[in-house]
Amino acid sequence: MRSVAVRVASEAAEFVRHRRATVDWTASVRTKSSETDPVTLVDTDCERLVRRRLASLRPGDGVLGEEEGETGSSEVRWVIDPIDGTVNFVYGIPAYAVSVAAQVDGQTVAGAVADVAADRVFSAASGAGATVREANGLQRPLACNPVSDTRLALVATGFAYSTVRRERQAQLVAQLLPRVRDVRRIGSAALDLCGVAEGRVDAQYEHGLGPWDWAAGELIAREAGAVVVLPGADARSPDGRLIAAMAPGIADEFGQLLTEIGAMAPIPG
After folding, report:
1. pLDDT classification of 25: cutoffs 50, 70, 90
2. Is the CA virtual torsion 199, 46, 19, 31 positive or negative?
3. Helix (H, G, I), strand (E, B) or coil at 21
4. How many Å apart are CA 264 and CA 269, to the nearest integer?
5. Which UniProt keywords apply (predicted)?
């Protein structure tokens, strides 16, 4: 399943790179949950490509995608995000990814996240560790930073498209910022989770993500040693529940900090 995830995510990332460089995809930008939540023709075409490849490589498996919902039913379900970080994609900011994960009974057992612009592919399988394949083809294992003091932690987060939820998220950042090294808003939850896995950030938290946003990334972070808080396998964005990934040396302290500022509670929106 890991090799399938890597293969499909890599092919999809190449498709996205080619389409952004050669096709007038801007003519088909539309919105989803709000005027600030875009989806492009490349999102939908990429998801269809991934679905076709999975149907060929894993016939009979179920698929849950961000753009076209859930199809099929089996013990194995593939959870896919054709472009995680669509706003970045639209603006040409090089931080967007393809995420492909395999779940068994709601638990992610294998997954890959392809960093499209950087041509890097993160992957993991349960109990087998996490790796990244660099653009030059070299592969190396991933491990979280050995940070042990939350005050020195670099933390990634993201914000919802709902103005109600975003206001509460801003309040949480205001409480968190004086108590950590700094905060980053990269714009792709999948890449944030992979960032925890490779030590580019020390922790990540966000409310209201769909399973397509985190299914592959949380496994990659966990297999790199991170302590992960999940909202439940079938939680959808409207639930507003928390997902977090923390380097093991700060997991207890950072988790307590999230509790103190009220971040463990769902944020309706």
Report:
1. low
2. negative
3. helix
4. 15
5. Hydrolase, Magnesium, Metal-binding
